[in-house]
Design brief:
Structural class of chain B: mainly alpha
Helix content of chain B: 55-70%
Number of strands of chain A: 10
Oligomer: heterodimer
Number of helices of chain A: 11
Helix content of chain A: 40-55%
Number of helices of chain B: 16
Largest sheet of chain A: 5 strands, mixed
Radius of gyration of chain A: 29 Å
Largest sheet of chain B: none
Structural class of chain A: alpha+beta
Number of strands of chain B: 0
Distance between the termini of chain B: 7 Å
Strand content of chain B: under 5%
Chain lengths: ~375, ~525
């Protein structure tokens, strides 16, 4: 008898030890079984709470199943067990109501404490506005003149099994969010279209991005590093393909980076104004346009311009594309409310917009011969 | 007690029972309607299961192989809708139809024509829903929870069909619930007092009240989705003064009691089976009744635990965390009572008992992960990951569905008069038990490691576990074909005849009438001691 129990105990403890030993390497590995401790003090607290809850649940399970399996082994009819007669006891019922209640109260205290700390975004040092849209993230630094879109960088060929999949398959972006370590960084989270959810497991931050409302969250990252996450709320077709990458840098390095970015973005704006005076050739427009199309439009309208019937309209043979250039520019620049068509005016530069509209009007047999130049876009945007 | 069944057999000759398809179309007999519900539920279970096979085949390895993401989303959505509204709920209604009148000594359900109607609109609802999959733009692709604005502004036009079919399902459920309540209130045999009712009757009575309370809320939610999408209202659109989070409050005010609608009847089934095969009375009958009632009442004040990440004020988060934790107390009482019933009993392990024991262990695992999910700060990490998928499949598949299988094995000999094929049944049990755990247990691990739910493709570190999960899924799917074979055999009345009591140790009115149960039972009410 003792032997059974001791062997059950050995199996259980080794299982738990296995689970715990697999904990908390900062990068995810193949056989990760558990939550990670993460990179902030809060995520550490969350991890500890998780382990506390897990152990309490294991103890409860072992006790309940222990009694149950004891009955199954020793009170079986085939061993000649005679049924007892008892079938109620108020004392026992009260005991197994009160004791679990007390255990719950004990659990509730540390949980409430951590929760209240997590929901206190006051006194932050840096604020970033995080905006989700189908299917990319936009980051805007509130204290600096820096903002940009962050799009998944994994190639379609990897997803379609034509190329070998890279190490960070589906978890890599073109432009990661950069934040300083050792500072309280506040995230204001919102959305331009459907509900998304901004989740970085290592920060224990998961906040829904609700269109028309702004949510708050915060993180104070201890160690510099690269932290990866994903959108956690079903947001349509490419929900599985909008990862989040955050790079945490030492404050001095961060300052350097943000100042450089400010400079780069200022110069880019000047360059855009300068390009307004220049006309691009058809070849240039088409080759630039194809690149922009694949990056910004193909997810819905499909690489072949055929769209998805009943979901996303086709561009091939579309009346607007073939005949109405003003409406075409307007819908690309300003989007169409009440549909999934986004306003690309703020996502792409004017020369990119010009190129992609030209591409759409001439690719896949549309062959209108129309050319759109950056200054045409500028005219629509400035309302001339 | 007496049953006066010889006269009942005789009565059948005076009954102008139509035969063939008309018998089933026009039937008002609770047993026929129960059979219809159960077969319908089983067909839907196989249909929803086929969709799960598509999902698991796509997720067998990283990359997109079989379906495109848009179709993948349709599969997850329709799989959920079919399993909840087409498989689990109709199966419980079918069991209620068969068993409630036999358990309380009533000749039939109180409203037999409504009973017919509430069944026959169900196939219409699911025909509409499934047909939308083949239309331009495809079926619903916004998850069974249809969060706005993904289901409004950003959905396709077949959303109207989705709304219509959910309305019909809701009407069917409400009619079924009214029937159960009226039957139990008015048609109990003399002497069948409230506290003598079998627990299956009690749990179904409480479930029926939950249904009447929340199905109209679901109807309201889908109607608002319809008007937001097609008629220019802005219930869930901030630009028009609405709020997308309000949708979630309304949906989960329906959705959480719905969870208990799918598990309370299971509690009743387990409370019938465990005492029979322990040859010992159920421990703590009264406390079981009170615990069921408390769970039902608490289920109305915990809905927002599905919404911790939506940005609620911290006070609301604390309230919903504490209220949710509280539900584990009455749920725990139930598990303790079942274990105490087995304690010092005289146990044997016939097939219904095997499923009931698996239910107790695996449902408890699902319950404990539910307790972990209640803890708000940690829920931020679990929410919308495979950890949640593992949790609700443990309570719904190894909970609700295992209890339904246990019930079918337990009462099938009473319905057909023949013992089912025990060898096949054991194969079904062991294959299901092993594969279901290979299927759902590793989901805890990938969820904790950070895999979001509802994605058609995943990062490489999740590849190995997903392979196992898919293999478990295929095996679980195949195992159900054993069940299909067994049921076909049973319906063709193969097998050894059984006694009236069928199982040594079974107690209750349904075990005192002949096997198979005659077409009409209790035309004269039985006498209850």
């Amino acid at each position: 008898m003792k032997k059974i129990w001791s062997s059950i105990l050995v199996i259980l403890t080794s299982l738990i030890a296995f689970t715990v030993s697999a904990e908390s390497t900062s990068t995810a590995d193949q056989y990760q079984l558990n939550l990670r401790k993460g990179a902030t003090e809060i995520s550490g607290q969350v991890y500890d709470l998780h382990m506390l809850m897990f152990f309490i649940c294991v103890v409860i399970a072992v006790l309940v199943f222990g009694v149950m399996f004891w009955s199954m082994i020793f009170h079986r009819k085939s061993r000649g067990a005679q049924p007892a007669n008892f079938h109620e006891s108020v004392k026992v019922e009260i005991a197994w109501t009160i004791i679990p209640f007390i255990i719950l109260v004990v659990m509730a205290f540390p949980a409430a404490k951590t929760l209240i700390a997590m929901e206190d975004p006051e006194n932050s040092d840096v604020t970033v506005l995080v905006t989700g849209s189908q299917w990319k993230w936009h980051y805007k630094y509130m204290e600096n003149d820096v903002e940009y879109y962050s799009v998944m960088a994994t190639q379609q060929e990897q997803i379609n099994n034509k190329f070998e999949k890279g190490h960070n398959y589906l978890l890599e972006v073109d432009r990661p969010l950069v934040i300083p370590t050792g500072k309280k960084v506040r995230f204001l989270v919102t959305s331009d279209d459907v509900i998304h959810s901004w989740w970085v497991p290592d920060f224990a931050v998961k906040k829904d991005a609700n269109p028309g409302f702004i949510n708050e969250a915060w993180a104070n990252v201890i160690e510099p590093g690269v932290y990866r996450g994903q959108c956690a709320e079903l947001c349509g077709k490419d929900h599985g393909f909008m990862p989040i990458v955050v790079i945490a840098k030492e404050p001095a390095e961060y300052e350097q980076w943000i100042n450089a970015q400010e400079e780069v973005q200022r110069k880019a704006k000047e360059e855009e104004q300068r390009l307004l005076a220049m006309n691009m050739s058809m070849e240039e427009l088409m080759s630039n346009g194809e690149q922009v199309y694949m990056r910004a439009c193909a997810a819905c309208h499909q690489p072949n311009g055929q769209g998805l019937p009943g979901v996303f309209p086709a561009l091939v043979g579309s009346d607007m594309v073939l005949n109405d250039m003003a409406a075409h520019i307007d819908i690309v620049v300003n989007g169409k409310t009440g549909t999934a068509m986004q306003a690309f005016g703020k996502q792409l530069t004017m020369s990119e917009l010009a190129a992609v509209i030209t591409y759409e009007r001439n690719a896949w047999g549309n062959d209108t011969g129309d050319m759109v130049q950056a200054k045409d876009i500028n005219a629509v945007m400035t309302g001339q | 007690m007496s049953t006066a069944t010889t006269e009942l057999d005789h009565d059948d000759h005076h009954h102008h029972a139509p035969s063939g398809i008309k018998r089933w179309l026009f039937t008002t007999n609770h047993k026929d309607i129960g059979t219809l519900y159960l077969w319908f539920a089983f067909i839907m279970f196989l249909t929803g299961g086929a969709m799960a096979m598509v999902i698991r085949a796509e997720l067998f390895q990283p990359g997109l192989q079989i379906v495109d993401p848009n179709f993948f989303n349709q599969m997850t959505t329709v799989h959920g809708l079919i399993m909840v509204f087409g498989a689990v709920m109709p199966a419980f209604t079918g069991l209620a139809n068969w068993l409630v009148p036999m358990m309380i000594g009533a000749p039939d359900m109180a409203l037999p024509r409504m009973n017919n109607w509430s069944f026959w609109i169900l196939p219409m609802a699911f025909t509409i829903l499934l047909a939308s999959l083949f239309m331009e733009g495809g079926g619903p692709a916004f998850g069974w929870t249809f969060y706005a604005p993904l289901s409004t502004t950003y959905s396709n036009d077949t959303t109207a069909l989705f709304v219509f079919s959910v309305h019909i399902m809701g009407i069917s459920s409400i009619m079924g619930a009214i029937n159960v309540i009226v039957t139990i209130f008015n048609m109990r045999a003399p002497g069948m007092t409230w506290m003598k009712m079998p627990l299956f009757v009690w749990t179904w009575l409480i479930t029926a009240f939950l249904l009447i309370a929340v199905m109209p809320v679901l109807a309201g939610a889908v109607t608002m989705v319809l008007t937001d999408k097609f008629f220019g209202t802005s219930f869930f659109n901030a630009a028009g003064g609405g709020d997308p989070v309000m949708f979630q409050h309304i949906f989960w005010f329906f959705g959480h009691p719905e969870v208990y609608i799918m598990i309370l009847p299971a509690f009743g089934i387990i409370s019938a089976i465990v005492p029979t095969f322990s040859r010992k009375k159920l421990f703590g009958y009264a406390s079981m009744v009170y615990a069921t009632t408390s769970i039902a009442l608490l289920s109305f004040i915990v809905w927002a635990h599905h919404m911790f990440t939506t940005g609620m004020p911290v006070g609301a988060e604390l309230f919903f965390m504490f209220a949710t934790m509280l539900i584990s107390v009455p749920t725990g009482v139930k598990v303790f009572n079942w274990v105490a019933t087995m304690w010092r009993g005289s146990l044997s392990f016939e097939v219904p008992m095997l499923f009931a024991l698996a239910f107790i262990v695996l449902f408890t695992i699902g319950g404990l992960s539910g307790l972990m999910l209640a803890i708000t700060p940690v829920d931020f990490q679990y929410h919308d990951t495979y950890f949640v998928v593992a949790h609700f499949h443990y309570v719904l598949v190894t909970g609700a569905i295992f209890s339904i299988m246990a019930a079918v094995y337990y009462w099938l000999p009473k319905w057909t008069g023949k013992m089912f094929d025990v060898t096949l049944a054991k194969w079904h049990f062991w294959c299901s038990l092993i594969s279901v755990n290979v299927l759902f247990f590793p989901m805890h691990f990938v969820g904790l490691a950070g895999m979001p739910r509802r994605i058609p493709d995943y990062a490489l570190q999740f590849a190995d576990f997903n392979k196992w999960i898919s293999l478990g899924g295929f095996a679980f799917g195949l195992s159900q074909l054993i069940f299909l074979a067994l049921l076909i055999k049973a319906c063709r009345k193969h097998g050894e005849p059984v006694s009236d009591q069928v199982w040594e140790g079974a107690e209750g009115l349904e075990w005192e009438i002949p096997s198979p149960a005659p077409y009409h039972t209790f035309d004269t009410p039985p006498v209850i001691k």
